Amino acid sequence: MSYTTSRDGTRISYDILGRRGPALVLVGGGLDDGGENIPLGEWLASRFTVVNYSRRGRGGSGDTAPYAVQREIEDLAAVIEATGSGPAHLFGASSGGALALEATAAGLPINRVAVHEVPYQTTEDMVAAWHDYTRELADTLYAGDMAGALRLFMRLAGASGEQITAAESTPMWPGLLSLAPTLRYDAACIGAGPPPRDRLARVTQPVLLTTSIAGDVHMAGLPADYFGSAADAAAACLPSGQHVTIPATGHVADPAHLGPVLTAFFLEKE
């Protein structure tokens, strides 16, 4: 594990999983300490210099207050600079995809961007539910109720009450509790809910938006084609965006299915 320092002095941890080609930085999503993208990074390491980092407040990275999305953009800029290879490709998973798009819109040195299942909200009901969630999340975290924050998130993500109760008895629960404060960071990256049209319009790089052909059993409560609709809405805001559905199941896509699609996209000649 290596470290770089962000503009506000926060130490950000990262690993380089391969040194075989152009730089590709992986951006994790909600409740991810940096480990969720490792299988995908290892799959891609034969063709890319893959950099997998832990976002602030997660894994080996620090968490300097106050939080702002701009600070996370500065973290990503420091990680890209640490690779020493100039402009990098980006892959962002879930809310990490929203961060990747925000960083690109902000002008970071980025070549191509791929995002998987960014949870933008595309209907009035979904936007209203999102606003309720962000308000309740802020109150719950302020009260120090980390378990309550996790339950709010899991309900928003479509988990049933039985699934949430079962999750609380697994060995993973204590680790999730430690990551609960970062749920508001993910919420800030998503913003008001819908794709941020004005900012996405500034992303002139090619953008690939992927979704799985079937959803996650723990997200069964979400509307049908929730992620597909979000990808279509975001693609419509991007000057050069395309939505591709991959033959995989689950919110965390199988590298054997997602890896070839990403490789072809990132190595595509302009």
Automatic annotation (TrEMBL):
Top-rank lineage group of the source organism: Bacteria
Listed GO MF terms: catalytic activity
Pfam families per record: Abhydrolase_6 (PF12697)
Protein name: Pimeloyl-ACP methyl ester carboxylesterase
Gene source species: Prauserella marina
